[in-house]
Amino acid sequence: MKIWVDADACPVAVKEILYRAANRAEVLMTLVANQLLRVPPSPWIKVLQVPSGFDVADQRIVAEVSAGDLVVTADIPLAALVVAKGAEVIEPRGDLLDRRNIQERLSMRNFMEGLRSSGVETGGQAAFSSADRQAFANQLDRFLARRR
Fold first, then answer.
1. Which of 57, 90, 93, 103 is most buried by its number of CB atoms within 10 A?
2. How far is it, in rounded angstroms, from Cα 37 to Cα 29?
């Protein structure tokens, strides 16, 4: 089992939780980004820098992920692709996405995208909060405990 992080838009607080968890659980984690990332020195943490471009990081994660892996992303289309390969997803706000709920989330995302493209103001997400950080940490702990 590996952890893959869609790192370009991942909140710093979530990355810090992931650094500690990867070291504690001794699980290989790879942060995939199209920019240079600074990470703490660890045999469990790697950075994979990909070229700039639309969905280049997403495509690399899909190519590398295996069944049983965990992907951290807020990108629902990416989540759907990795879930189809047998991985699970935790969003930075702590929601777990898997085969049971990914189609519902993808349908809702597509519906909202259709509204926005037709000019309807749908608002945005609230700012990332300490409750979101705690929800992510709790979900990650549950995932890692199941894998032990």
1. 57
2. 14
Separation CA 52–CA 125 (nearest Å): 26
Q: pLDDT confidence of 112, banded at 50, 70, 90?
A: confident
Phi then psi for residue 102, to 5 deg, are -70, -35
Contact yes or no for 1/69 (Cβ under 8 A): yes
> What's the token pair of residue 110?
């597509």
Q: Give the pTM.
A: 0.90
In the block, which residue shows the tokens 């965990």?
70
Gap between the Cα atoms of 32 and 61, Å rounded: 7
Given the structure tokens 């349908």, which residue do they identify? 107
State whether residue 32 is helix, strand or coil: strand
